[in-house]
Model the fold of this input.
Amino acid sequence: MLVLLLHVVLLGLPSTRATEACLRACPAACTCSTAERSCSVRCDRAGLLRVPAEFPCEATSIDLDRNGLRILGERAFGTLPSLRRLSLRHNNLSFITPGAFKGLPRLAELRLAHNGELRYLHARTFVALGRLRRLDLAACRLFSVPERLLAELPALRELAAFDNLFRRVPGALRGLANLTHAHLERGRIEAVASSSLLGLRRLRSLSLQANRVRVVHAGAFGDCGALEHLLLNDNLLAELPADAFRGLRRLRTLNLGGNALGVVARAWFADLAELELLYLDRNSIAFVEEGAFQNLSGLLALHLNSNRLAVLSWAAFQPGFFLGRLFLFRNPWRCDCHLEWLRDWIEGSGRVADVPCASPGSVAGLDLSQVAFERSPDGLCVDPEELNLTTSSPGSSPGPVATTVSRFSSLLSKLLAPRVPVEETANVTGGLANASLFDSLPSCGVAGPGHRTVLLFISRPLLSVAHYVVFGLQRD
Done:
């Protein structure tokens, strides 16, 4: 027992010594902590204008976020053989000396995001970072990236370079055989060329959303056979080449929303048998080619909302069988017999909702699920518009014309009916109402017989005019 206890104590000595060393060498403006044999140094929001002269040799993580650092000199951090994570976000870095990160042989994650004055990086900036796996260059207002900048990073897996000023996909990405994630959104990229992504055979996620992409060249993603998520939404694409996505057999998410596409071509999705999410929303799509979605049997959701679709053919899905959810709202749907299949599918699957009809006028404003399609004697579908011309729906309320006719008839009957003596009106329930009706008429007819003659003389032309008006309203 004594031997076992001694063994435990001896094993704990190195850990204790490492903890003491971490705390003892902690820079004055920073706080240091240890956990699970790691030494973390936090210098964020410390008001630093330069990098501290010394860090604990055992440091595994250093956080220098939100300070006033402007320049990183050569070997800015000395030699830190255990350092794996270094964060310099939200500083005022304007220049990084080539070799600034020498002495950090095990660095795996480097964060330089939100240094808006950086704008330019030397090709040798990341020399000696052969184990770096994640690099964050977001929001540095970089105009370009030197071709050889990332060549020193053979182990790089993830690159975050969004919110920059690139006008094209950085050529430095080419040949990064181990890169799996590239975030290039919210920039000024105008095209994806056929050579932009060469050699990225392990790339699994590519985000190019919210740029200015107008052109995607044929075969641009030809080397990206492992790609699973491709985001091209909120760009300026008006058309795509037929083989734009050829070879992307593992693609699971494709987002083309928020562009200017007018047609969905059958050839686009021919190779995308594994696709699960397809976004085509917020475009100007008015036509979907027959068989466009025929290979997408594993699709979980198809977004076609906010387009210009008036009709969608069942042939767009054949011969496949789509089982996912379909989003079709904010389209000018014409709910005639061409959409009867969709109405039946809504009833049967419950995976479609909110398909408001814009036409024909007889069903405008209704949801497609509420539209009734009748059959002719030959068994053919009859459009709702045709039904309204020949039949009226049961229980419908009278139209404006019928209401006007009834009011004219009521008024005439009251004008021509014999007047009730004043003393009898007290026994009639509607006496006050009738009196108010005639208050606006001349008071003739309430006096002697001579006045009754005048009333009849005036009533005959009035009766003719009223009959003419009523007859005309009935014809309309």
Observations:
- The two ends are 109 Å apart (CA to CA).
- Residues 5-13, 388-476 have pLDDT under 50 and may be disordered.
- The chain has six helices and 25 strands.
- The CA atoms of residues 94 and 118 lie 4 Å apart.
